[in-house]
Amino acid sequence: MLLADAIHSRISARAFLDQPVPQETVRQILDLARHAPSGSNMQPWHVHAVSGKQLDRIVEESLAFAEEHPIGSQEKEFQTPAENFIQPYKSRRYEVGMGLYDALGIERKDKVRRNEQLMQNFYFFGAPVGLFFSIHRTLMPGQLGDLGIFMGNVMLAARQFDLHTCAQGFWQDVQPALHRVLDIPEDYFIFNGMALGHIDPEHPANSLVSGREEVDAFCQFAGFDE
Ligand SMILES: Cc1cc2nc3c(=O)[nH]c(=O)nc-3n(C[C@H](O)[C@H](O)[C@H](O)COP(=O)(O)O)c2cc1C
């Protein structure tokens, strides 16, 4: 697959087919992704790749944790509180959120169905594989960018195997449960989760097209014509 095709065909998939992904395929995706650059080549990424009964256990324990500590009730490390977002970011965020609800036929005021969609994160949107990306706390915040680059590589490498992904910052809300189930030491920060699997092309959640600004909206060129 051409890189351009991988980039254009990648979307955040929020509904997956009930079709397993072999461990060897996950390994091959990570084998590509590991070539990501990182500051001073520190390669700060740690990944837990989970499937099958272990994934069910994560769902179970995380849901139990969220019963006691509702999603959104805790202060998040290294995440801007929603009320602090300024324009144009605030509007972009609103637009993609509402776009998803529209695609799913969820009324904007329907908090119950909106919450049901949020809850889909717990189930990795039906994906057979969950990936968790963590980093040693001593490397934060400096190397978080490295982890982001690595995750980007994973998302694009997945396309090489005709698989889709959805990055999930959502999992930061239930970190204590993840530390326990995955046996991740406390001095590691679980930055993101990621659903990985075969996309359900018919599902309305996957019909959402998120827009992007043109290059001139975010890049100021200088010195090229001198
Ligand atoms: C770091 C990161 C965390 C994200 N966390 C979530 C999440 O928790 N749940 C979710 O449904 N989508 C999540 N997304 C997906 C974004 O909403 C999505 O990338 C964005 O709307 C652009 O859409 P696209 O990926 O389909 O191009 C996340 C994306 C990134 C890069």
Task: Please describe what this structure looks like.
This protein is an alpha+beta fold and 226 residues long. It has a single domain, classed as NADH Oxidase. The protein is 39% helix and 13% strand. The chain has helices at residues 3-9, 23-33, 52-68, 89-103, 111-119, 144-160, 175-182, 215-218, and strands at 46-51, 129-136, 164-168, 188-197. The protein has a four-stranded antiparallel sheet with strand order 1-2-4-3, with helices on both faces. The longest helix is centred in the N-terminal third of the chain and has 17 residues, at 52-68. The protein is globular. The model has no long low-confidence stretch (mean pLDDT 96). Flavin mononucleotide binds next to strand 3.
Tally of separate helices: 8
Q: What is the CATH topology assignment?
A: NADH Oxidase
Query: Structural class, judged by helices and strands?
Result: alpha+beta
**Spatial separation of the terminal alpha carbons:** 37 Å
